Amino acid sequence: MQSTETNREDVVQPGRCRLLPQEFVIGKANPRPRLQGPARVVFSRWRKTISWRRVLTLRSSSTPSVAGRCAKRRRSTAHLHVRCYKVKQTFLHRPGLEIEAEFSREEPPVFRYRLSATKMGSSAAPKTVCAIMQNPSYACVEFADKSVQVLERVVFERNLEEFRGVGRLIVVNQFAFIQTNGFVGAREQVGPRNDAAIAQALEQSEIVLIAWGKDNGFVERQNAILEMVRCCHGKRLLQTSRHPSRVIYDGFIQDYRT
Predict the structure, then answer these.
(1) DSSP letter string over 155-201?
(2) 148-164 pLDDT, tens per residue?
(3) I need a labelling partner for 18 at 20 to 30 A (CA). Which of 30, 66, 218, 223 fits?
């Protein structure tokens, strides 16, 4: 059975609205999303996983209503100016971790080269896991995404023998291009500094976790990264049974096999 383990502290709670870097405005004249400033995140009590949903904001009220009331509100408040936002629920990093992230310098950034999570109180040079996934989503210093949060749980909280004594997790990607849906894996999406970031993460790690998933089809990029791993002698090489966003914890961590 697939795990749906998600605690309330993992996601943004009611009354704890935070800002995301973008807001999607939908309307009859604009059926496709366009960026318009910060968006508020509202946690839906009955949803257990990350999802997209639509929230009504009325000019007469600053409190967004949840999606289930949208149709009723449209009928009863037809005389009011209505804007409909599409916002993304987001996960938080696990407690007790210090988060660092390296992005490209555009505004907003196009590439994320590295994200690290270090247990508070760890030594200056902690035992480290380097996890290599496909490409980054919206995870940053303040927010995690589902994949990053799953890796934090697996490495730091599930008491697995493979990660005993680990104090730091470094997440890098085959492609540094930030995109959530419709990723194509073009050559220019690798990122100009991505190979250097991967090489540095491998050098700083004792354990390498291949976490791009069994359905990853970017074979040329896989081979290039595995060649970098082979050049770093003495590393323990592990893999995940599937992409972390589709986690089933039983048997999730395995010895790497080609």
Answers:
(1) HHTS--GGGTTEEEEEEEES--B--SSS----GGGS-TTHHHHHHHH
(2) 999 999 999 999 999 99
(3) 30
